[in-house]
Amino acid sequence: MESLQHNKSNVCKLFAFVAIFIIILLSFASLASAETTCKRQECTITITLHIDFSGTDNATIQKWVQDIESIWNGYTFGACKCDVKVKVDWRNIGTASCQSNYSSTSTGRHCIHVSNATHVTIAGNTYRGIMWGTSKSGSSLAGYWGTSMNSPLPGVAGDIHDAAHEAGHMLGLEDEYNASTGTYAPNIMGRTWGNDSKPTQAQIDAIVANNCKGDNAKCPEYCCCGNDKIEKNVGEECEKTSDCTAGANPMCISCKCYYIDICGDGNVTGKEECDPNAEPEGCDEDEKCNPKTCLCEEVNLTVKITEPDDGEEIEQDEVVTVELDIESAKDIVKVEFYIDDELEEILEKEPWQWAFEAADYEPGEHDIKVIVYDEDDNEAEDEIEIEILE
User: Fold this and answer.
1) Which terminus of the chain is more exposed, N or C, with fewer CB under 10 A?
2) Would you give the distance in Å from CA 374 to the centre of its chain?
């Protein structure tokens, strides 16, 4: 059995005119049933109390629910610290009692019948609230609460958490106090007042063990990520980006270090083979670094006439300069310039450009062709057409 435990022995004296016994009845084997359910999703374990209330109004119920959830939330479970959330799924089923011989009449749900009196009297004893574990309903807990649940106590400062204490029984915990000896353990199951009216880690571990089974009762190793401690034994490399120091442009994602490939930043990282701004850029002698992909590409000898434009019209008094764009991994040794298939100029050193006077050629269309040779006797050519005006 259970009741609201008072603070110290002097509080009991203040209640001498009321025969309040601080005894809560509790006897059940396990809460692995529908009344209290458990479900883990990723790194959060949610334990839900399914409770029917009868004999009171919604506003009163909501205050008790708020007390339960505020006291039992904010804790973690396991070495990787999975969040443990306690939720209350409640219903107000009206004025008719959901109790029958101290057992719940609501299938698969805890049942609390609220007395109109400030206290409830059971078997001649007076309680602010009481929970019964009955063999008739297996693991189901049914309770009688008075309207004084969570009300202030004379001589006791701060909030009173009777509802949260009673919820502890629904979560599978026993009382940790002895009113006759004035012994109250410093936790929510030992006292309902003061700074110590909170769950201990051992109690959190116990409610997970009581209500969660299989995978629901586990906190996976990957949940260690985010606890400000690098657990290398589970493959963590970082908790924050500053932990990643093996390369440029780091990011810590899901406790793994990633180094972002930013082509052109002067660093050869990740899947990059080269970087055009690195020294050296990273490619072999006969390769060139692609400035868009930072991958090394074999360079074939190519040439393109960039001046004049293909099809350009040229006045007779103009001097035409033929300019080239040459790509090669090897040294260029010779460039030949042709007009209408007639060799006009041979260059064997830079700059690779040739100028001629338009007046030296008849008006009309003319072909300009260049042939480039590298040191390995590879060659490439390009050709355009111009028109010399009359």
Assistant:
1) C
2) 57
Tokens read off for 317:
């008094």
Q: What is the DSSP string of 223-258?
A: GGTTSSS--GGGT---SSGGG--SSSSEEEETTEEE
- 36-89 confidence digits (pLDDT tens): 999 999 999 999 999 999 999 999 999 999 999 999 999 999 988 899 999 999
Which residues, listed in sequence order, are joined to residue 52 by a DSSP beta bridge? 91, 111
Owner of token pair 């401690």: 229
Write the Ramachandran bin of 316: left for phi over 0, alpha for psi from -120 to 50, otherwise beta: alpha
Within 10 A of 253 (CB to CB), how many other CB atoms are there?
12
CA distance 46 to 28: 22
> Do 73 and 171 reside in the same domain of the chain?
yes
Query: Structural domain of residue 108, as residue ranges?
Result: 9-215
- In one-letter notation, the amino acid at residue 156 is V
In this prediction, the residues of the chain whose per-residue pLDDT falls under 50 are 1-32, 134-138
Torsion angle, alpha carbons of 355, 360, 366, 371, to 10 = -40
Q: Residue 203 and residue 75: Cα distance in Å, rounded?
A: 10
Q: Which amino acid does the sequence have at 28?
A: F
Give me the CATH number covering residue 349: 2.60.40.10
